[in-house]
Amino acid sequence: MKKLFRIFEITQELVDDIVKRTYDAHFHDFEELIILTEGSLEHYIDFNVEVIAAPAACYVSMNKMHKLVPHENMRGWVINYKPEFIPNSKLSFYSNFFTSTNVPLPTGDCLNRFVRLCEIIKAENVQDFADMATVQHLTEGLLSMVDAERKRNLPIENVAKVTQITTFNNFLRILEENFRRDVGVSFYAEKMNMSERNLNLICRNNFQKSVSEIIETRKLIEAKNLLLHSEKTISEIGFELGYNEKSYFTRVFHAKMGITPSRFREMSQSIIS
Does domain 162-272 have CATH number 3.30.70.60? Predict the structure, then answer.
């Protein structure tokens, strides 16, 4: 994508055009947010498939291999933007730890606010002399609204307090600096000056995943990036991510992805070519 930003509405004409054309899974060099207001779609991402029903928001970060198959009655909005356009998005940061972010949205006034904001963003963006600072701030607001709904979707007993959210984000930052090392839950708990139990509780309250699950997911996402965008061998990638044995890295990757690292690389490169 040459532009820093674009937004368009999902209309019947667009859905018909996508259905007629056959296209493979692909990678893109921009962040993507889909606001699904009606209907549903099938989302193929990293060789997995999920059906997303409206109303919902779907966030896909750059360099993820994916394919969207809209159902005939699908309607909504799509926003694409380069990372430098909105460099500090929480959803972009969280995407380092999750394959995809799907957030159910309430109907009624809440959904109407999302639609209205998309309409405002598009109206500003199509102006002859569009104020891109305004477009940026409005889009940041939209992303914040999606993240707010993500938090509201947590079970009431797991709703994190502000202090827990701060602690959790600090954990993710420490993880981002250390996930390549061969260290486990105890290392991060010590860094956070808390027990492993409390750190696990905070992680589950925020993302409904344990500390070890988040660590392994971050390693897996980085492994896929290296398999796709580097010439490093499987052993080198495993060693870089803290797996001292190639066989162990291969077993962990296969358990999470259902295919070996070498097969993932072969299939991904065939798609790119």
Answer: no
Report the C-alpha gap between 75 and 156 in whole angstroms: 30
213-236 confidence digits (pLDDT tens) = 999 999 998 998 899 888 999 999
- The class (CATH top level) of 5-153 is mainly beta
Nearest CA among 84, 78, 82 for reference residue 41: 78
Three-state secondary-structure class, residue 223: helix
Torsion of CA 78, 208, 137, 27, to 10 degrees: -40
Residue whose entry in the numeric block shows the structure tokens 């209205």:
116
Q: Domain spans of the chain?
A: 5-153, 162-272
Per-residue pLDDT of 142-190, as tens digits, reads 999 998 898 787 665 555 566 788 898 899 999 999 999 999 999 999 9
Length of the chain: 273
Closest CA to 220 of 247, 242, 196, 187: 242
